[in-house]
């Protein structure tokens, strides 16, 4: 890879964009257009910029990002399905000066691992949790997630999610913001450069917060799942903006341990989730 | 802290041994009859003395995954529970075995199935030695029969766990857990320093220095050929344990015409039954299993050649007896005697079973 | 020497702690000991019992069903354990609340009116030590100095000021115990 780079530079090409050194050379298995790749890169850039590559442990989930440990050039543990917050709790408790982050999807964090998520947050564990929400189970083939929108089609809701049958979309970020153990709670997205810049700032803050030892930092990243949604990446991003974002509004909910200005009870409790038609 | 003579419950001995053996962390969830383990740890506040971390988790599922996370950083991490809680931990146990993470799990058994009873039982033998969770794996399984062994085996567990990079299970029961006996405590083993941790667990995830590749702790391998190689590696490790780490105690087996095979609290009852039999002039020996995996197959087979019959005593419907019959190739009359549901057999009942099922 | 003892009564009568003090005294005298309680739902307000073994040799089973001595503090326990005393063994009971006296003819039976005496002297908290004193009078299996050490190890340090009162209660028990039937 380095030889090819030199060759191109010698031919007069100018280097404008490089792979961050905290990512390995492994070729990612993610679908083109998916938010995981971008999110990985943002985390890796933050680790690089903070100079903590030698003092960080990541915990990967079960789901699309199960192999995250192959992509980050940092020490990594692969947790059982949903258990990353419990795993990370112990890593941090036993290594309090090490930066610890979890990386989970919606099935892992908000369905099978709900208990571990809530209790890690409630204990105020000094960790960073990254939550990629694409409203569907990607790896197992597009089944309903707890975050699937009402009316949204999936392999197990072929006629659309029904509240009477499947309950409501679960908004973990709003829920966790109400716990005193969380210090920073935000929802971001990575579908365009402006969003990416904001998401990176949020991830940086979530990592920096670990130095303060004041509680858990939680960053939800809204992502498309173009394969699962059966759309092109561009269409999937548009669909995400039109349908996911009204249900999962972007922005900070809690900063420095305080609920942000303008976050009203009505904002936190969305009692009539919007219905989408696919 | 220096050696002391104490009177102590088995559960308390486990907790004190964890502190004294340089354990870095304990994660648990209360369940009868082993709650004294965490209660003792919380009362002792080892975080103020040895620096050991103690945390009450939200469930056994969380506990065992905390063990996974902590132990995967190359530290000595333990949990304890009782049968229903251990069932909940099976997922974590197979991941721990699959990721080759050294750690300590203590099961103070109670009767089942289901919620069962809070009274002592030994009906988790299959779960402990025949897998429990999915996949081909083994836990090195120690069965203490006294409060002193509850204490000592915690120290032994750390040696085995790190030598083989394998989880170690101490399989006890409510009787030994609740019983108080005389105990000689040991000199404290200090917790590992940062340098010792790195030397003893070079595979651990504590932050990747520039001098090495990133360490990955995982039990996932999507390439079947590589997974098979890994499975074979595990089997080789278990074979080495069978070769080198078998433990048992043979009492009065040299001249015995009959032997009783038992472990844990049943072996104590069987020892009394053996004494009663000898007083009656019946030559009975006791073969006590200390490791359930690896099972002392060769050693038992050797003794079995010389006897007329074997009585297996276990507080179960007869689980250990399967391994006894395998060890002896069913070459000698072998029967099971046990009680269920938290009923502990009396020495008299054991002797009666020996006379009726084996000698008659 | 091996002495196998059952102590049984109501929860709250100090049955388990009496057993623990006796066992700890045995430890201090370098004997082998075991202390095996009944536990679980029985612990919560109902009957409580504990088997204590003190021996010069390695103890085989801490779980036993035949006893050299039964120390009985209520009617239910008398009904449950009278038949478990070995022939020629010893049964000690407190007559308080006993409506059916023991009937065995092949064992030694003693009574100790510890409840009444402790109330009379206003030392109900150390009632169990009065009973222990009665037992030690008949079976001095641990020496006085080790009882002192046993008390020190069994009681939290903040209660060590109560040790003299406990020892006094043991002495009272020694004078209080009286034979009902000796064989």
List the topology elements.
The complex is a heterotrimer of chains A (278), B (360) and C (183).
Chain A: H1 2-10, H2 35-50, E1 56-60, H3 68-71, E2 75-78, H4 84-94, E3 99-105, H5 106-112, H6 114-122, E4 128-133, E5 136-137, E6 143-144, H7 163-166, H8 172-177, E7 182-189, H9 193-208, E8 216-222, H10 226-229, H11 233-247, E9 251-255, E10 258-259, H12 265-268
Parallel strand pairs in A: 1-2, 1-3, 3-4, 4-8, 7-8
Antiparallel strand pairs in A: 5-6, 7-9, 9-10
Helix pairs in contact in A: 2-9, 4-6, 5-6
Chain B: E1 5-9, H1 10-20, E2 25-28, H2 36-44, E3 53-56, H3 60-71, E4 77-81, H4 83-88, H5 90-98, E5 103-109, H6 125-129, E6 140-142, H7 147-164, E7 167-173, H8 174-178, E8 180-184, H9 194-200, E9 216-217, H10 224-244, E10 248-251, E11 258-263, H11 264-279, E12 284-289, E13 291-293, H12 297-304, E14 309-313, H13 320-327, E15 333-337, H14 347-359
Parallel strand pairs in B: 2-3, 2-4, 4-5, 5-7, 6-7, 11-12, 11-14, 14-15
Antiparallel strand pairs in B: 1-8, 6-13, 10-12
Helix pairs in contact in B: 1-2, 1-7, 3-5, 11-14, 12-13
Chain C: E1 2-10, H1 15-28, E2 32-37, E3 47-55, E4 67-72, H2 75-81, E5 85-93, E6 108-111, H3 114-121, H4 127-138, H5 144-154, H6 163-176, E7 178-181
Radius of gyration of chain A: 18 Å
SS summary, helix count of chain C = 6
CATH homologous superfamily annotation of chain A? Thiamin diphosphate (ThDP)-binding fold, Pyr/PP domains
Which strands sit side by side, in order, in the main sheet of chain A?
2-1-3-4-8-7-9-10
Provide the CATH architecture of chain C. 3-Layer(aba) Sandwich
**Chain-averaged pLDDT of chain C:** 92
Radius of gyration of chain C, CA atoms, in whole angstroms: 15 Å
Proportion of residues in extended strands of chain A: 15-25%
How many distinct folded domains of chain C?
A: 1
Text of the CATH class of chain A: Alpha Beta
CA-based shape of chain A: globular
Approximate helicity band of chain A: 25-40%
Gross morphology of chain C: globular
Spatial gap, N to C terminus of chain C: 21 Å
Low-confidence stretches of chain C: 40-44
**Average pLDDT of chain A, to the nearest integer?**
95
């Amino acid at each position: 890879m380095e030889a090819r780079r030199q060759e191109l530079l010698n031919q007069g090409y100018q280097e404008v964009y490089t792979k961050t050194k905290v990512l390995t050379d492994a070729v990612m298995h993610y679908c083109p257009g998916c938010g995981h790749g971008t999110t990985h890169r943002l985390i890796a850039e933050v680790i690089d910029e903070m100079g903590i590559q030698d003092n960080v442990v990541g915990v990967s989930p079960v789901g699309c990002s199960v192999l995250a440990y192959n992509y980050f050039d940092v020490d990594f543990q692969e947790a059982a399905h949903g258990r990353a917050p419990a795993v990370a709790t112990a890593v941090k408790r036993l290594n309090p000066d090490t930066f610890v982050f979890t990386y989970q999807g919606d099935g892992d964090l908000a369905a099978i691992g709900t208990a571990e998520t809530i209790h890690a947050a409630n204990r105020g564990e000094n960790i960073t949790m990254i939550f990629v929400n694409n409203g569907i189970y990607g790896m197992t083939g597009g089944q309903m997630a707890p975050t699937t929108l009402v009316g949204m089609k999936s392999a197990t809701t072929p006629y659309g999610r029904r509240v009477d049958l499947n309950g409501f979309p679960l908004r973990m970020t709003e829920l966790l913001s109400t716990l005193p153990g969380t210090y920073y709670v935000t929802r971001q997205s990575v579908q365009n450069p402006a969003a990416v810049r904001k998401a990176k700032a949020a991830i940086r803050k979530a990592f920096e917060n670990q130095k303060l030892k004041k509680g858990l930092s939680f960053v939800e990243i809204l992502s498309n799942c173009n394969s699962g949604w059966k759309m092109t990446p561009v269409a999937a991003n548009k669909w995400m903006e039109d349908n996911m974002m009204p249900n999962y509004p972007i922005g900070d909910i809690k900063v420095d341990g305080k609920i942000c200005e303008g976050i009203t009870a009505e904002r936190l409790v969305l009692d009539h989730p919007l219905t989408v038609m696919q | 802290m220096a050696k002391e003579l104490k009177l102590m419950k088995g559960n308390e001995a486990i907790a004190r041994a964890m502190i004294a053996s340089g354990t870095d962390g304990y994660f648990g969830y209360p369940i009868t009859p082993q709650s004294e383990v965490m209660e003792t740890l919380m009362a002792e506040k080892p975080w103020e003395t040895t620096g050991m971390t103690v945390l009450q988790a939200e469930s056994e599922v969380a506990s065992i995954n905390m063990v996974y996370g902590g132990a995967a950083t190359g530290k000595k991490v333990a949990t304890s529970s009782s049968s229903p809680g251990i069932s909940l931990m099976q997922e974590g146990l197979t991941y721990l075995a699959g990721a080759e993470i050294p750690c300590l799990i203590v099961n103070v058994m109670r009767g089942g199935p289901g919620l069962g009873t809070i009274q002592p039982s030994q009906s988790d033998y299959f779960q402990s030695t025949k897998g429990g969770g999915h996949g081909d794996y083994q836990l090195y399984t120690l069965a203490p029969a006294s409060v002193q062994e509850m204490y000592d085996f915690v120290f032994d567990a750390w040696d085995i766990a790190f030598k083989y990079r394998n989880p170690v299970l101490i399989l006890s029961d409510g009787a030994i857990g609740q019983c108080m006996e005389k105990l000689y405590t040991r000199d404290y083993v200090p917790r590992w320093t940062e340098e010792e941790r790195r030397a003893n667990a070079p595979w651990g995830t504590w932050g990747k220095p520039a001098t090495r590749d990133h360490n990955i702790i995982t039990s996932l391998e999507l390439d079947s050929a590589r997974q098979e190689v890994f499975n074979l590696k595990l089997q080789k490790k278990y074979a080495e344990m069978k070769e080198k780490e078998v433990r048992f105690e043979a009492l009065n087996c040299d001249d015995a015409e009959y032997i009783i095979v038992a472990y844990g609290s049943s072996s104590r009852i069987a020892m009394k039954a053996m004494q009663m039999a000898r007083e009656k002039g019946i030559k009975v020996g006791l073969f006590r299993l200390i490791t359930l995996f690896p099972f002392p197959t060769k050693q038992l087979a050797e003794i079995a050649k010389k006897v007329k019959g074997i009585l297996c005593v276990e507080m179960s419907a007869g689980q250990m007896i399967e391994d006894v019959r395998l060890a002896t190739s069913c070459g000698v009359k072998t029967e099971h005697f046990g009680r269920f549901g938290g009923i502990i057999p009396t020495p008299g009942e054991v002797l009666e079973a020996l006379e009726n099922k084996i000698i008659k | 020497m091996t002495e196998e003892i059952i102590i049984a009564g109501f929860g709250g009568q100090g049955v388990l702690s009496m057993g623990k003090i006796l066992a700890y005294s045995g430890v201090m005298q370098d004997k082998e000991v075991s202390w095996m309680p009944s536990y679980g739902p029985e612990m919560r307000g109902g009957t409580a019992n504990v088997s204590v073994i003190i021996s010069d040799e390695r103890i085989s089973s801490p779980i036993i069903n035949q006893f050299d001595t039964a120390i009985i503090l209520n009617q239910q326990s008398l009904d449950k354990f009278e038949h478990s005393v070995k022939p020629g063994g010893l049964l000690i009971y407190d007559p308080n609340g006993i409506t059916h006296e023991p009937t065995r003819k092949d064992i030694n039976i003693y009574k100790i009116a510890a409840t009444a005496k402790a109330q009379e002297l206003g030392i109900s908290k150390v009632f169990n030590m009065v009973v222990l004193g009665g037992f030690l009078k008949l079976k001095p299996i641990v020496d006085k100095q080790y009882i002192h050490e046993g008390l020190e190890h069994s009681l939290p340090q903040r209660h060590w000021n109560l040790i003299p009162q406990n020892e006094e209660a043991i002495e009272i028990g020694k004078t209080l115990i009286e034979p009902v039937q000796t064989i």
